[in-house]
């Protein structure tokens, strides 16, 4: 006779919740996962990562943007791109992904419970699926994977049509002629890129003096150059005071007094954790004012048998890291040995062009007074770069002149988010730039840029070593 309904109950079916549930099921636990019927797969599948990445693919294909180097600046696959054209691809992918997730859960015997969970005691939640008869579900271990929602300031009149957040932007009725993007974080810059590519006149308003300051600044400069070329205007060091809805469009007023008229405003100024909707106090827990939950290195909260993973615990708040947190938390909760997550984690930013990196930036190394040498390879000097018509892409390797270890890899351009894993593997296995110099790459590929950049870094290191030896 079991004391609890389940061994493990997971709240939220986003990337962290799914992986937690499946990891626990693989360890022969009786597992349930709870989420709203319309949100299977979480923010990741329904409103965030997957819709935005699919939309980007549709935009790149339909605008023909990446082919214009070859076929001229007026090249387009479709002249009048409608929201329906874009939505068709997004809906197709979301539908397929939800099917995949349902199937994975069911073949691992994870019970999917529909509804919203709220704690009633430290071992039980009440699940309300809107039918007026909430059900109590208890479990020995509970894993909170509740994620986040877009932050919505009071001073903004959201209407889901002209003034939207990043959830609403995928449901716009038409491609706007002009748009204000508030917040130059990752979400803001990814959507600014997509709408600029569609021909929308985009103005980005960002409170800080610069954007994406965790990235290589040379690459951020290159991105800004590309976006300005697509008619994006940047307003850095400016804060939005109010956003109003009018008959003929929206009016955004900045603290500096500037006023910007636009068809649409997209607010992408951070996200709020959903811990505040879980009645945490019934479990003996508290969230912070941003709706997040504190955890230890094993993702355990202040209450021993309750874990929290994914965006609800804050930084880095990525689908990639959330999945791994879920798996590790479930492994620990089930009493199995779990290794810590590898400290090297790649960042992929799906702007147009895309950015990806792993390891340190030049600025970080300079601040910590760590010597480094840089090797750069440009796609336009690679046969594959010419073939695909990418003349702006680049890869930068940051190398230690002392032991030749790779300290960072920064990529801008086609395939950046895939290519980064080569560098990540070399770094993760403690390899040096000598491996990249000596190794043979397929030709013609973009991966070849690793060898070109490695040779460039080694040439500089050898030159310094020769001078040093002479001395
Ligand atoms: C526009 C956008 C683009 C992004 N692009 C990327 C990207 O390219 N790469 C990347 O790695 N990351 C990206 N992210 C981040 C990524 O989506 C998140 O890091 C990831 O989804 C977090 O996963 P999670 O498991 O914490 O849960 P989420 O995906 O946030 O899902 C949480 C789930 O919990 C459910 N839930 C909440 N409370 C309850 C409750 N009380 N009862 C039942 N269910 C509940 C919600 O309904 C939801 O389904 C993007 C995010 C956004 C918004
Ligand atoms: N490719 C990816 O990995 C990816 C893509 C999208 C989102 N995400 C994740 O989603 C999360 C949320 O992203 P985000 O971009 O919404 O948040 P963010 O916090 O990264 O960026 C918000 C930006 O808005 C600015 N801002 C806030 N209020 C403002 C105001 N009133 N006026 C002007 N500027 C203002 C902030 O200074 C900040 O730069 C992040 O954790 C991110 O990692 C990841």
Automatic annotation (TrEMBL):
Its cofactor is FAD. It holds the Pfam family Pyr_redox_dim. Residues 346-453 form the Pyridine nucleotide-disulphide oxidoreductase dimerisation domain. Signal peptide: none annotated. Residues 6-326 form the FAD/NAD(P)-binding domain. One of its GO terms (cellular component) is cytosol. Binds 1 FAD per subunit. It is found in: Cytoplasm. FAD binds at residues 53, 311. GO terms for molecular function: dihydrolipoyl dehydrogenase (NADH) activity; flavin adenine dinucleotide binding; NAD(P)+ transhydrogenase (Si-specific) activity. NAD(+) binds at residues 183-190, 206, 270. Keywords: Cytoplasm, FAD, Flavoprotein, NAD, NADP, Nucleotide-binding, Oxidoreductase. Its main location: cytoplasm. Its EC number is 1.6.1.1. GO terms for biological process: 2-oxoglutarate metabolic process. Belongs to the class-I pyridine nucleotide-disulfide oxidoreductase family. Conversion of NADPH, generated by peripheral catabolic pathways, to NADH, which can enter the respiratory chain for energy generation. This is NAD(P)(+) transhydrogenase (Si-specific).
């Amino acid at each position: 006779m079991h004391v609890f309904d389940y061994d493990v109950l997971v709240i939220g079916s986003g990337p962290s919740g799914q992986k937690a549930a499946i990891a626990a099921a693989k360890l022969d636990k009786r597992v349930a996962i709870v989420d709203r019927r319309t949100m299977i797969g979480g923010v990741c599948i329904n409103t965030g990562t997957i819709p935005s990445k699919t939309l980007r693919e549709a935009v790149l294909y339909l605008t023909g943007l990446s082919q214009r180097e070859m076929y001229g600046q007026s090249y387009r696959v479709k002249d009048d791109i409608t929201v329906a054209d874009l939505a068709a691809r997004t809906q197709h992918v979301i539908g397929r992904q939800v099917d995949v997730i349902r199937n994975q859960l069911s073949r691992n015997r994870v019970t999917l419970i529909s509804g919203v969970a709220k704690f009633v005691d430290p071992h039980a939640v009440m699940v309300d699926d809107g039918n007026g008869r909430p059900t109590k579900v208890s479990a020995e271990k509970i894993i909170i994977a509740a994620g986040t929602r877009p932050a919505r300031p009071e001073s903004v009149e959201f209407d889901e049509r002209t003034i939207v957040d990043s959830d609403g932007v995928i449901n716009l009725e038409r491609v706007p002629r002009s748009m204000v993007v508030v917040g130059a974080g990752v979400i803001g810059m990814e959507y600014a890129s997509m709408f600029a590519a569609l021909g929308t006149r985009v103005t980005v308003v960002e409170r800080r003096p610069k954007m994406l300051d965790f990235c290589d600044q040379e690459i951020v400069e290159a991105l800004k150059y590309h976006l300005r070329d697509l008619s994006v205007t940047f307003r850095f060091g400016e804060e939005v005071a109010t956003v109003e809805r009018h008959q003929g469009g929206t009016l955004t007023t900045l603290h500096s007094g500037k006023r910007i008229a636009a068809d649409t405003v997209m607010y992408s100024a951070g996200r709020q954790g959903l811990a505040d909707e879980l009645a945490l106090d019934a479990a003996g827990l508290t969230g912070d004012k941003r709706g997040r939950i504190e955890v230890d290195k094993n993702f355990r909260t202040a209450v021993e048998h309750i874990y929290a993973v994914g965006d609800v615990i804050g930084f880095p708040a990525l689908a990639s890291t959330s999945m791994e947190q879920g798996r590790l938390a479930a492994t620990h909760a089930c009493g199995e040995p779990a290794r810590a997550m590898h400290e090297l984690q790649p960042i992929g930013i799906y702007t147009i062009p895309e950015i990806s990196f792993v390891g340190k930036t030049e600025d970080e190394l300079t601040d910590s007074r760590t010597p480094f040498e840089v090797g750069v390879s440009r796609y336009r000097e690679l046969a594959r770069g010419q073939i695909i018509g990418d003349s702006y892409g680049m890869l930068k390797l940051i190398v230690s002149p002392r032991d030749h270890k790779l300290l960072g890899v920064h990529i801008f351009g086609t395939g950046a988010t895939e290519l980064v894993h080569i560098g990540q593997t070399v770094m993760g296995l403690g390899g040096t730039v000598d491996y990249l110099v000596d190794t043979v790459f397929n030709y013609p590929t973009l991966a070849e840029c690793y060898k070109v950049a490695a040779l460039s870094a080694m040439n500089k290191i050898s030159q310094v070593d020769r001078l040093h030896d002479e001395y």
